[in-house]
Specification:
This protein has 13 helices and no strands. With 377 residues, the chain is mostly helical. The longest helix is centred in the last third of the chain and has 50 residues.
Length: 377
């Protein structure tokens, strides 16, 4: 929780600086580039940790080697796709170019987290992420003072992930002696074969989460993207809470599901409190964060907060499905959510922009929660 406070405060400071210095259009380009890169961070994960953690023998060095190779391919893919994206602009492309190498940092940190998670040493994980976050904030503030184009701000993002990765590797030496990657092609191929259903589910989850931003950029403009993404950034910060809880609970879940009702009740209570708090205080939060000019973000955030119960509970049920090895059923659920989300956005975003995207996000997650419950029953 302490680590989350550090990263959240830093994120809000950065968003506030962007909103005040670059306006709605600049905020749209900056957040759209981060959203685009986030898809590749998730692909770099590829569900390896969840799969490997089940094994008695964790060949961590081979996992690190596999992740580095895969991350290199993803960097090439992230940059190579830019000319083919319908919403690409010169500023967006340069922002992605500056930030693409952060995929390596995110990948290394995720690999280190496997050991932190297994040993229940999240204090070390939080320390590494906090150090990198503060470095990123300092570099970001310096770049803003130089009044550089908004795309250059992604350099701070890259430096932050680099420091996080190096810090995690340094702290990991407390738990394992050898941190040198081993590049084993057979291990890598087998890992992909075993993990692809989890990876596909997580990737679909991210795409269906954030495809709306790209649609707003295509059908509307960068300013509307900025308005929506300010609201979504606050919303997304709250969603880290169930993720954090489930990362800590998953190793225990592998041993027993005895406390699952207690965890579910706790997540539901937190989500309802979060919804009430957000609806009441969203005007104040948006005004403090942006300094004004983002009034549409208030309504968008209030709508998104209605989805907290669905997001919190579906985070729990997703890991129940993983624990039971129901990877393909989980993939079907999230594919259904993606298709449903995509169709609604295609129909309504051209007319209602970020308001439509907000409602579609909420409705889609409740659909996923219902499907999870039906399959588990």
């Amino acid at each position: 929780m302490a680590g989350k406070i550090v990263t959240s405060v830093s994120t809000f400071i950065i968003l506030g600086l962007v909103a005040r210095n670059y306006g709605t259009s600049g905020t749209g380009i900056f957040t759209l580039a981060l959203t685009y890169l986030a898809i590749f961070y998730m692909l770099a994960d590829f569900g390896f940790n969840a799969h490997v953690l089940k094994k008695r023998d964790i060949e961590w060095n081979k996992l690190l080697g596999a992740r580095l190779i895969w991350s290199g391919l993803l960097v090439i893919l992230a940059v190579g796709l830019l000319p083919f994206l319908p919403f690409t602009t010169p500023l967006f492309s340069s922002a992605v170019l500056f930030g693409a190498l952060a995929i390596f940092g995110s990948s290394v940190f995720t690999t280190c987290n496997l050991i932190f998670q297994k040993k229940l040493r999240y204090d070390l994980s939080v320390l590494a992420s906090s150090i990198g976050t503060l470095v990123s904030l300092a570099v970001f503030y310096f770049l803003v003072l130089q009044k550089l184009p908004v795309s250059f701000l992604l350099l701070a993002h890259f430096f932050g992930w680099l420091v996080i990765a190096l810090s995690a590797l340094f702290l990991l030496r407390r738990l394992i002696l050898k941190i040198i990657p081993i590049f084993d092609l057979r291990y890598t191929i087998n890992l992909f074969k075993s993990s692809w259903p989890i990876a596909a589910t997580l990737a679909l989850n991210v795409i269906y989460f954030r495809a709306d931003s790209f649609m707003i950029a295509y059908f509307k403009n960068a300013a509307d993207v900025g308005v929506y993404n300010i609201a979504y950034s606050i919303f997304q910060t709250a969603l880290v809470l169930p993720t954090f809880i489930m990362n800590a609970y998953y190793p225990l879940m592998l041993k027993s599901l005895e406390k699952i009702k207690l965890i579910g009740s706790g997540l539901l209570g937190l989500s309802l409190a979060g919804t009430i708090f957000t609806i009441i205080f969203s005007p104040i939060m948006i005004r403090i964060l942006t300094g004004g000019g983002f009034e549409g973000s208030v309504q968008s955030l209030q709508i998104l907060s209605l989805g907290f119960p669905a997001y919190f509970l579906s985070a729990l049920l997703m890991w129940v499905l993983i624990t039971r090895g129901q990877y393909k059923k989980m993939l079907i659920i999230y594919t259904s959510g993606l298709v449903f989300n995509f169709v609604l956005n295609i129909i309504y975003i051209p007319q209602y922009s970020y308001i439509a995207a907000s409602w579609t996000t909420v409705i889609s997650e409740y659909l996923i929660l219902i499907l999870q419950i039906l399959i588990l029953r």
